[in-house]
């Protein structure tokens, strides 16, 4: 097929395919020029103000969502929260104080933090109790002291069933590719991957049993777990302290002072924001490590 025109335009839909001379070694080259109109599309700016309208509508939806969440929060703290405190939380706290001594509670919390991960139960409620009973200092020492035992038992049990765990991981390759990162590289790489997995939303109790199957060494596994668990422990302790503060205020039939409300609201916002930021960072770093690993394997 011979084209006699030196410069010919072919219109395909809204795009133009332009044939030009001198496009290489004595030949012609095709150049695609996109001139599709975006007016009326979501991201199209144009002169008709479509981009401005889309930006305004996005902010309007965001404001509506914030207002809706604020109304739900106000309803919860005004009616649902006090009712739940009076019927559930306060009776449990009173029963706990009358039944167990401080030493006994410490043993119960420590024992639950060491046993629950082995039987695939979450340990967060035990950390709430540690926060309500012992505060930040002793609560953190109690929790961080029990975590090594709680994560070591499933690690060594998992080493007895590596073949079965490998078969199970093959059924979920996408999830398995994340935890297999912990077994790659040197000691520091394994430590970093384990810490990021602990911070990320990956199921805590599942990874305890799968860790050995990924060939991660016990040293980086344990140290990475301790570092990665620190944010979760502080968030759980703060939640327990906040629950106790609200329960005491509800039980004594007096409202919190303005300074207490401001302190609790700021503390809650900082806790949520910090948790979200750290979690998003851990997910992003895991994704980057996963992409680097895939590039190396290619």
From TrEMBL:
Domain VTT: 121-241
Membrane-crossing segments per the record: 56-80, 100-120, 140-162, 221-241, 261-282
Keyword Acyltransferase (UniProt): no
Keyword Membrane part of the UniProt annotation: yes
Key words, A-Z: Membrane, Transmembrane, Transmembrane helix
Listed name of the protein: VTT domain-containing protein
Organism from which the protein derives: Sesamum alatum
